[in-house]
Specification:
With 409 residues, the protein is α+β, with helices and mostly antiparallel strands. It folds into 3 domains: 1-111, YVTN repeat-like/Quinoprotein amine dehydrogenase (Methylamine Dehydrogenase, Chain H, 7 Propeller), CATH 2.130.10.10; 156-286, YVTN repeat-like/Quinoprotein amine dehydrogenase (Methylamine Dehydrogenase, Chain H); 288-396. It has one helix at 289-408; strands at 3-8, 13-18, 23-29, 36-39, 45-49, 53-60, 64-72, 79-81, 87-92, 95-100, 106-110, 117-122, 128-133, 137-142, 147-153, 159-164, 170-175, 179-184, 187-193, 201-204, 210-214, 219-224, 234-237, 243-248, 254-259, 264-268. β8 (79-81) and β9 form a beta hairpin. The relative contact order is 0.06. The mean pLDDT is 88. This is WD repeat-containing protein 65.
Length: 409
């Protein structure tokens, strides 16, 4: 999960944030001043520094910061986990104590400074540790051989921050004299005055192509690398007071700055040439044993309820299937009876139909015969009547002719 941690020296709180969602994840309050914090690369552990001790904590989303081990340290103002998280370093006055994150054994005690340490940086391979102090001292420790291999002092200068390239050859420092120095080996090969007052912090991108420097009054300066005789840097303003801390995300895509004006700013790095994009954040978080036990018990209880509900569902399902089968049997039997009744009615109707048809055919045949007989009889009577009338007419004509003859006579 994309997280970062902050501490408040006034309200004595430690807060865990999600810098992608800009969301506060948890808050832990303490009864004493919190001087510094450091978050493990996995986000599961955190170091919290106080005036006389440093605590190693488990980050729990349910129980907050759960202390696991306490280490003695005087006025610790610098804590830092190694890149892989298997070790962590804490400042103890003018020395640095390096502990194992697994066994909590003290692996190294590094000495070499004459004043309070202002910054410490792990090398990319976790086998070298670089530190600086307020009197201009710069030390490099080889943890593989347990040797103090480099010791440089810039008299009269207070080094406020340093950054180391991935190849471990270049070291960049910022100081209160507004200068950025590039150190190669034991020589200062470039010393550039940025004219921005006291410089308070410096960060180097993993690509080794860009430096970010915190200047006076909260300004952030971006310096392209390698440093040239004339530096064309860009200025970014959001804070109005000194930037106390600034860190880059693991993929160099986000910059988090904290200022003395009680503000936190999350910057999005737009130029994709300067950071790695193939980063997958872990979603796992740690929880307390009691919380986990309660969750397991609750899960078992829910599983038991689920099993009971499943069995009840199966019983209800079987009962429903049985009822449906009985209902379907009743419907099927009723359907068979209705079909048989309809078939009988159909046969009766067909029988009645054929009987009526035969009766009507007989009636029609009888009517045809009667009609034929009546027609023949009527025809014969008509012919007889017509013959009679013809004879009668002829007789009338004959009588008329005789009457005319008699009249003429």
């Amino acid at each position: 999960m994309p997280m970062f941690m902050t501490c408040g020296r006034v309200d004595r709180t430690v807060k865990l944030w999600d810098y992608q969602q800009c969301e506060l994840l948890l808050t832990e309050r303490y009864a004493e001043d919190v001087l510094d914090v450091s978050l493990h690369p996995s986000g599961l552990y955190a170091l919290v520094a106080f005036a006389r001790s440093v605590t190693f904590n488990v980050v729990s989303r349910t129980d907050g910061l759960v202390p696991r081990r306490t280490f003695g340290a005087e006025d610790c103002r610098g804590t830092r986990f190694s890149g892989s998280g298997h070790m962590f370093a804490v400042t103890d006055g003018t020395s640095v104590d390096v502990y194992c994150s697994v066994t909590f054994a003290k692996c190294f005690k590094l000495n070499g400074h004459q004043s309070a340490i202002t910054d410490l940086v792990w090398a990319a391979n976790d086998w070298k540790l670089y530190t600086c102090d307020g009197d201009g001292g710069l030390c490099r420790f080889n943890l593989y051989t347990d040797q103090h291999i480099t010791d440089m002092v810039f008299r009269g200068q207070s080094i406020c921050g340093l950054a180391v390239s991935d190849n471990l050859k270049e070291i960049y420092t910022v100081a209160q004299d507004s200068s950025v120095r590039e150190i190669y080996g034991r020589m200062v090969i470039r010393n550039k005055d940025l004219n921005h007052g006291s410089l308070n912090g410096i960060i180097l991108f993993k690509s080794n192509k860009m430096l970010l420097v915190a200047g006076q009054y909260g300004v952030i300066l971006s310096l392209p690398l390698p440093l040239k005789s004339k530096i064309n840097y860009k200025e970014f303003y959001i804070h109005n007071k000194t930037i106390l801390k600034m860190r880059l995300s693991t993929d160099d895509a986000s910059l988090i700055t904290c200022s003395a004006d009680d503000s936190i700013c999350i910057w999005r790095v737009k130029n994709s040439n300067f950071f790695h994009t193939n980063t997958t954040f872990m979603e796992n978080t740690l929880v307390s044993f009691n919380f986990l036990k309660n969750k397991i018990d609750r899960t078992k209880e829910l599983e038991l309820k689920l099993e009971k509900l499943t069995k009840k569902k199966e019983r209800d399902k079987l009962k429903l299937i049985k009822n449906q089968e009985m209902w379907l049997k009743v419907v099927h039997d009723q359907y068979a009876l209705d079909m048989k009744r309809i078939e009988n009615e159909k046969k009766e109707i067909l029988a009645m139909f054929h009987a009526d048809k035969a009766r009507l055919e007989n009636e029609i045949s009888t009517l045809k015969e009667n009609h034929e007989r009546d027609w023949i009889t009527s025809k014969e009577n008509y012919e007889k009547q017509l013959s009679y009338e013809d004879d009668k007419y002829e007789q009338l004509i004959k009588d008329a002719s005789n009457s005319d003859a008699d009249f003429k006579k």
